[in-house]
């Protein structure tokens, strides 16, 4: 409280009357926040991927969760690849059309939509007229890749 010792009586009186040194505000700053529940928007809950393939099981090794923010240029296709683990995506910006190579199925996801990725199915993502930004969450294992390119293809990321 060095300020109080150096303040003139006029300044001190003005501060107290103006409310800048009031005791209730000092107490409010040190009290605990109120307990409240958050609002949850459930974006995805699936036991199968976007193309209808059911998930078999999680790996039996120690789990490792990872999240990737992936930016893909406009008018481009990711290399053909597979994911060995269940994972989910959320479109932050743009659109993404996922193509299943074997069945030929396609589905387009827009900004604000979530999707359950396929496991061990060869697929790729294709962007539209603008870049696409995805948030990808993987349930994998330490030291194991989350995306495996087909032979002759470059990495997805």
Describe it.
Residues 70-135 form the Cupin type-2 domain. It comes from Gluconobacter roseus NBRC 3990. Keywords: Signal. Residues 1-28 form the signal peptide. By secondary structure, the chain is of the alpha+beta class. The chain folds into 2 domains: 1-36, no CATH class; 64-149, Sandwich (Jelly Rolls). The protein is 15% helix and 31% strand. It contains 3 helices and 9 strands; from the N terminus they run H-H-H-E-E-E-E-E-E-E-E-E. The chain has helices at 2-6, 9-18, 23-30; strands at 64-72, 81-82, 87-93, 95-100, 106-110, 114-116, 123-127, 132-140, 148-149. The longest helix is centred in the first third of the chain and has 10 residues, at 9-18. The chain is globular and about 60 Å long.
Question: Structural class given helices, strands, pairing?
Answer: alpha+beta
* Tally of strands: 9
Spatial extent as radius of gyration? 27 Å
Query: Uncertain spans, ≥5 residues at pLDDT below 50?
Result: 1-22
How many separate domains make up the residues? 2
CATH-assigned fold name of the largest domain: Jelly Rolls
Along the chain, the helix and strand elements come as HHHEEEEEEEEE
- Which geometry do the CA atoms define? globular
Total helical elements: 3
Distance between the termini: 56 Å
Q: What is the helical fraction, as a range of percent?
A: 10-25%
**CATH architecture descriptor text of the largest domain:** Sandwich
Strand content: 25-35%
Average residue-wise pLDDT: 85
CATH class of the largest domain: Mainly Beta
Widest beta sheet: strand line-up: 1-8-3-6
Pfam family, one: Cupin_2
Signal peptide: 1-28
InterPro entries: Cupin_2 (IPR013096), RmlC-like_jellyroll (IPR014710), RmlC_Cupin_sf (IPR011051)
Domain Cupin type-2: 70-135
